[in-house]
Protein: DUF4174 domain-containing protein
Amino acid sequence: MKYVVLTLLFSSCLFAQDTNAHLWKERVIIISGNEAARDTIDAQFHRFESQLKELRDRKLVIYRCINKFCVYYDSKSKPKMFNREETSENFSISLFGLDGGKKFSSTEVIESNVIFNLVDSMPMRRQELRNKQN
Structure:
């Protein structure tokens, strides 16, 4: 059990280096897993793929990672591919807020509206919406 906790903490720290560039600019969705979880990762990604307007409006970017290989999607430019140090384990999806804090995590495929509703309930997002109305 200690090994699992340490692995999760270590993986989060390494991946945090990649996501620090988004602090205070974008919210980050990370969809990850190992090769055995590829179909689940694809199913989760496809729930967001057709929601470009909603992703852009909420300042959401997506990292789709299988093992050490990741693709970054920002709905504005072509996907960017890169390798990372750690290997993904079982399927997971996580949401990080503008402040870089983890706001949501699941090991099951979820509908895109779960993330959208969660983001819409965040104080910074509510302020963004109020500013749009003015």
